């Protein structure tokens, strides 16, 4: 959306376009020819592009939690400038996460298809179409499992459907200890604030990228054991619910 | 080492300007001081610490500097070069700890000038470990909190929680 990309992962994506993993001997010549003939991306035959793997090649692909904490802290401070209230601040954090979600979705599909089709010696990208979720439950499982593992290294802690008959379009994803909130303690007069609104923005971006119109918000639900437990409330729009009924009748999974 | 932190009485954090930014007691039954008294205590200690640092004795350097060259160029040079700290590689630290028969006060100063004052039982061992852990928690839950304003009083719920949990867990 309006906010410029500020996250490290997006940085890596934009870097990838400039420098594909493998270089040929006459780089300048081939590049000049390529730009005239086909301005597309060069795909190495073994599919070891920069998109297929983490930039960080170390064994567990670990990143410094401290530097992320400082970066995220600065993002919160940046969002806090000239805000009118807590909701405005959460909206800004949400907007910072939204474009990241849109792009992460592509990366997630790209990586999941590349690993599944790696047994076949595939060189073309269209070997198996990415399995974009069509139903709400599949989408939520994608967020709950693979997306959470990509971002935080573990699955989310719970996935629930609203029990109230008035709000069948509401789903809840629970994270007992959100990584973004590890070092953040909101001041007492802003106790409603939850900085995981950023993660809510990421979820919203993923849902929108799949064609599910959604509003996602983060809420504090502390328990004795998990003081920073956060519930992400996913509210699908009416068109999505109508389509869901049609798909259910048609038996699409 | 089960009783390592049983004797931790209280913690005070003083910012680099001598202001009290954090104060917490870990045991009941301590003599109560008013907030104002704590502020005075922090300011006084800050001054005493600065004095103890500046009265660190210097010893004369054994071989004097070549006098004819320096006297023509600079006036202050000979006076300053005549004395040095006993161990020039180690920075002057000032008051490190103060011990009475009822308590021991340990002072730990960070590189940026923040001071951690820990009041413990004189029999408590490995105070350095405790203070290092407190510094680590401070660096994590105070300095990485975007809502904390530097040099201002510490009001971070996560810091309180983790500090209490860690000290209780070691009791």
Automatic annotation (TrEMBL), chain A:
InterPro entries on file: NO_sig/Golgi_transp_ligand-bd, TRAPP-I_su5, TRAPP_component
GO CC annotations on file: endoplasmic reticulum; TRAPPI protein complex; TRAPPII protein complex; TRAPPIII protein complex
Location, primary (coarse class): endoplasmic reticulum
Keywords: Endoplasmic reticulum, ER-Golgi transport, Golgi apparatus, Transport
Subcellular location: Endoplasmic reticulum; Golgi apparatus, cis-Golgi network
Recorded superkingdom: Eukaryota
Gene3D superfamilies documented for this protein: Trafficking protein particle complex subunit 3
Record region (Disordered): 1-47
Biased amino acid composition, Low complexity: 26-38
GO terms for biological process, alphabetical: endoplasmic reticulum to Golgi vesicle-mediated transport
Function: Plays a key role in the late stages of endoplasmic reticulum to Golgi traffic.
Family: Belongs to the TRAPP small subunits family. BET3 subfamily.
Subunit structure: Part of the multisubunit TRAPP (transport protein particle) complex.
Protein name stated in the entry: Trafficking protein particle complex subunit
Originating organism: Penicillium rubens (strain ATCC 28089 / DSM 1075 / NRRL 1951 / Wisconsin 54-1255) (Penicillium chrysogenum)
Automatic annotation (TrEMBL), chain B:
Cellular localisation: Endoplasmic reticulum; Golgi apparatus, cis-Golgi network; Golgi apparatus
GO-annotated biological processes: endoplasmic reticulum to Golgi vesicle-mediated transport
The entry's keywords: Endoplasmic reticulum, ER-Golgi transport, Golgi apparatus, Transport
Gene Ontology CC annotations of this record: endoplasmic reticulum; Golgi apparatus; TRAPP complex
Pfam families reported for this sequence: Sybindin
Keyword Ribosomal protein: no
Top-level taxon: Eukaryota
Subunit architecture: Part of the multisubunit transport protein particle (TRAPP) complex.
UniProt record similarity statement: Belongs to the TRAPP small subunits family. TRAPPC4 subfamily.
Protein name: Trafficking protein particle complex subunit
Record organism: Penicillium nalgiovense
Taxon lineage: Eukaryota, Fungi, Dikarya, Ascomycota, Pezizomycotina
């Amino acid at each position: 959306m309006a906010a410029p990309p500020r996250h490290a992962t997006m940085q890596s994506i934009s870097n990838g376009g400039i420098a594909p993993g493998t270089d040929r001997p006459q780089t300048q010549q081939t590049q000049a020819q390529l730009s005239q003939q086909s301005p597309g991306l060069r795909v190495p035959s073994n599919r070891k592009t920069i998109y297929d793997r983490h930039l960080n090649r170390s064994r567990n692909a670990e990143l410094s939690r401290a530097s992320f904490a400082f970066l995220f802290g600065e993002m919160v401070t940046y969002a806090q400038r000239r805000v009118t209230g807590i909701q405005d601040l959460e909206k800004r954090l949400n907007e910072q996460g939204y474009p990241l979600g849109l792009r992460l979705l592509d990366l997630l599909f790209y990586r999941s298809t590349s690993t599944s089709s790696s047994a076949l010696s595939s060189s073309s990208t269209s070997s198996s179409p990415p399995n974009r979720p069509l139903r709400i439950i599949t989408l939520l499982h994608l967020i709950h499992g693979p997306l959470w593992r990509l971002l935080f290294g573990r699955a989310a802690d719970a996935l629930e459907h609203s029990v109230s008959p008035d709000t069948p379009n509401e789903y809840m994803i629970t994270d007992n200890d959100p990584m973004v909130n590890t070092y953040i303690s909101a001041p007492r007069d802003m106790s409603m604030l939850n900085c995981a609104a950023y993660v809510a923005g990421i979820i919203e971006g993923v849902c929108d990228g799949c064609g599910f119109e959604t509003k996602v918000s983060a809420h504090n639900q502390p328990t004795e054991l998990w003081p920073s437990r956060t519930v992400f409330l996913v509210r699908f729009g009416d068109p999505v619910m109508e389509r869901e009924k049609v798909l259910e009748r048609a038996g699409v999974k | 080492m089960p009783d390592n932190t049983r004797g931790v009485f209280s913690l005070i954090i003083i910012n680099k300007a001598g202001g009290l930014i954090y104060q917490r007691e870990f045991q009941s039954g301590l003599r109560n001081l008013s907030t104002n008294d704590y502020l005075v205590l922090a300011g006084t200690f800050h001054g005493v610490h600065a004095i103890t640092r500046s009265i660190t004795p210097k010893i004369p350097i054994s071989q004097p500097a070549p006098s004819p060259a320096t006297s023509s160029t600079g006036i202050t040079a000979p006076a300053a070069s005549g004395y040095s700290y006993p161990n020039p590689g180690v920075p002057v630290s000032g008051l490190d700890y103060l011990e009475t028969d009822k308590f021991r006060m340990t002072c730990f100063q960070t590189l940026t000038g923040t001071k951690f004052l820990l009041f413990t039982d004189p029999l408590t061992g490995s105070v350095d470990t405790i203070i290092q852990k407190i510094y680590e928690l401070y660096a994590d839950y105070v300095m990485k909190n975007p809502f904390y304003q530097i040099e201002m009083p510490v009001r971070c719920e996560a810091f309180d929680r983790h500090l209490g949990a860690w000290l209780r867990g070691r009791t």
